[in-house]
Amino acid sequence: MAQDQVFVGVDVSKGTLDVHVHPGGTTGQFGNHKAGWRALCAWLRRLAPGDRQGGIALEASGGYERAVARCLVEAGFRVHVLDPAQVRSFARGLRRHAKTDAIDAAMIARCLAATIDEAVPYRPDPHAERLAALVAFRARLVAEAAALRGYRDTVEEAMVRRMVAARIAGLKLAVARLDSEIAALIASTDRFAARARMLLSVPGVGPVLTATLIAQLPELGRIGAKAVAALVGVAPFNRQSGRTDRGGRCRGGRRAVRAVLYMATLSAIRAGNPPVAALYQRLRRAGKPAKPAIVAAMRKLITILNAVARDQKPWAHAT
């Protein structure tokens, strides 16, 4: 990192942008609206000319960050959207347990400075952002329907049961409409359609997992097998110290992707996907409990999908 470079952390909330500049500690606060974004851009240009700009980082905050991130990119700044879990882990490593908007902005700036060599710049992609929004909302509706079905089983009041049933039926229609919209968006976007054809060639992989991977795991095919397994949260991390070895343990990862991958893995096992089903059956015969065996099968499936996306060849011809 050049000594005179500055790194900017922006903590985004619905109404405000808290800004911290590292090093130096300069702070500012702006409104999270068009006038505030323009003021932030002007403030940043005065603070650090182009040759001193190391980068600007924001946390992914449920969508509130997208418009300001696009504005900053259009203004010529190098922008990074960081995973909140990464920033919190960084803060805990510094023993910063307090959490306020100002502290968060400082941690975001320092996290970017520490990881700038690996950080990937944000590039606005309207098609990808729309697909991600549709897929995320679909998952929310599916979860709501599942919760309501569980609740219905515990209720005896007839009127409540009818209202719950009507709500579940409405959610089913909404999910079907989303499925249609997602399919149309993928089919009309060349790069999505090409990737979908490759992923759907793998036995057990259906439209839901395909859309989820395209929308929420864009790194698929661009990084190694171990890295993609870690991103999903199915890679065991070693827990060894001295003579103690407690075996690997999976942690972290993208929960939404992992949940859909789990269901797809069960389908792949039932569909007889040779490497996935064979691995699962071999582990079970060796005495491995069902859950670790399924996780291993999930890791195998995402590795296959990563290779298919990397080689851009259907699974039957993948090496």
Provide tags for this entry.
five-stranded mixed beta sheet; 12 helices; 319 residues; Nucleotidyltransferase, domain 5; globular; two-stranded antiparallel ribbon
Describe the protein in words.
The chain has 319 residues and is an alpha/beta fold. The chain folds into three domains: 6-115, ATPase, nucleotide binding domain (Nucleotidyltransferase, domain 5, 2-Layer Sandwich); 125-188; 192-319, no CATH class. 58% of the residues lie in helices and 11% in strands. The protein contains twelve helices and seven strands. Strands 3-2-1-4-5 form a five-stranded mixed sheet. The chain has a two-stranded antiparallel sheet with strand order 6-7. The radius of gyration is 23 Å and the shape is globular. It starts with 5 loop residues before the first strand and ends in an 8-residue tail after the last helix. The model is unreliable at 237-250 (pLDDT under 50).
Lay out the secondary structure.
Blueprint (H helix, E strand, L loop, with lengths): L5 E7 L3 E7 L4 E5 L2 H14 L5 E7 L6 H9 L4 E4 L1 H10 L7 H15 L10 H27 L5 H31 L1 H11 L6 H10 L8 H8 L7 E2 L2 E2 L9 H17 L2 H12 L4 H22 L8
Parallel strand pairs: 1-4, 4-5
Antiparallel strand pairs: 1-2, 2-3, 6-7
Helix pairs in contact: 3-4, 5-6, 5-8, 6-7, 7-8, 8-10, 9-12, 10-11, 10-12, 11-12
- Taking the alpha carbons of the first and last residues, their distance comes to 40 Å
Number of contiguous helices: 12
Q: How confident is the prediction overall: mean pLDDT?
A: 86
**Which geometry do the CA atoms define?**
globular
**Percent of residues in helical segments?**
55-70%
Number of domains: 3
Q: Count the E strands.
A: 7
Order of helices and strands: EEEHEHEHHHHHHHEEHHH
Please give the radius of gyration in angstroms: 23 Å
Biggest beta sheet attributes: 5 strands, mixed
Instruction: Classify the oligomer.
Output: single chain
Structural class: alpha/beta
- Major beta sheet, strand line-up: 3-2-1-4-5
Q: Which residues sit in consecutive blocks of at least 5 with pLDDT less than 50? A: 237-250
Percent strand equals 5-15%
